[in-house]
Amino acid sequence: MRRLYFILSIPVLALLLTGCTGNAIAQANEVAPTTTPEVISNIPPADCPVTTVKGSPVFEAPVPYSPNSPWPNIFWFGSNHLWTALHADGVWSGLPFNPGGYTQKLVWWSEGYIWDEEPEPALIVTSERLDASAPPLFTSDANGVYASDMGSAMMAGFDFPTLGCWKITGHYKDAELSFVVWLAP
């Protein structure tokens, strides 16, 4: 009797394991980030002209902002009309992934901008992937923000559909600012 029970239980166990494995694979595919077929490294390739502190002109933010960025490994980039704070190495890695893509928020400043006088600034952000074709970047509407360590600023959120080399351009009033970042895992 035990032998019959053992023999009958093998197909049942196999069926259960097959069903579990298929379900686990389906669940993994549902939450896996959509990336490009190429392997993405944390180091930008030579053909991705990332904007770095070493390759950028020196920009000192106007008063009341400090002449240097208030955060480690971050530098001011732009002009008095429009600037932002970028990573010194030009790499954005470890961004959270959601159904819309890899999420990042970026703060932009403009001399004379006051967050509570223009809570919904007319900042427009566009982008293009430089190293491959990709769906367009989703950008949220900008909002006015304030904090003691960064002053009055504009913030916009992005959802990048893929990793890779991206050129981002901000437009505010008559100013335009472009830079390139490497999105890595």
Salient structural properties:
185 residues; alpha+beta; single chain; 4-stranded mixed sheet; Immunoglobulin-like
How would you characterize this protein structure?
With 185 residues, this protein is an alpha+beta fold. The protein folds into two domains: 1-32; 74-184, Immunoglobulin-like (Sandwich), CATH 2.60.40. It has one helix at 2-31, and strands at residues 74-79, 82-87, 91-93, 97-98, 101-109, 124-129, 138-139, 143-147, 151-160, 164-172, 175-184. It is globular.
Top CATH class of the largest domain: Mainly Beta
The CATH superfamily name of the largest domain is Immunoglobulins
Shape: globular
Mean pLDDT: 81
Largest sheet: 7 strands, antiparallel
Relative helix content: 10-25%
Distance between the termini: 56 Å
Topology-level CATH name of the largest domain: Immunoglobulin-like
- Helix and strand succession? HEEEEEEEEEEE
Q: Give the number of helices.
A: 1
Q: Unreliable stretches, pLDDT < 50, 5 or more residues?
A: 1-37
The CATH architecture category of the largest domain equals Sandwich
Summarize this entry quickly.
The chain is α+β, with helices and mostly antiparallel strands and 185 residues long.
Topology, element by element:
Blueprint: H1 2-31, E1 74-79, E2 82-87, E3 91-93, E4 97-98, E5 101-109, E6 124-129, E7 138-139, E8 143-147, E9 151-160, E10 164-172, E11 175-184
Parallel strand pairs: 3-11
Antiparallel strand pairs: 1-2, 2-5, 4-5, 5-9, 6-10, 7-9, 8-9, 10-11
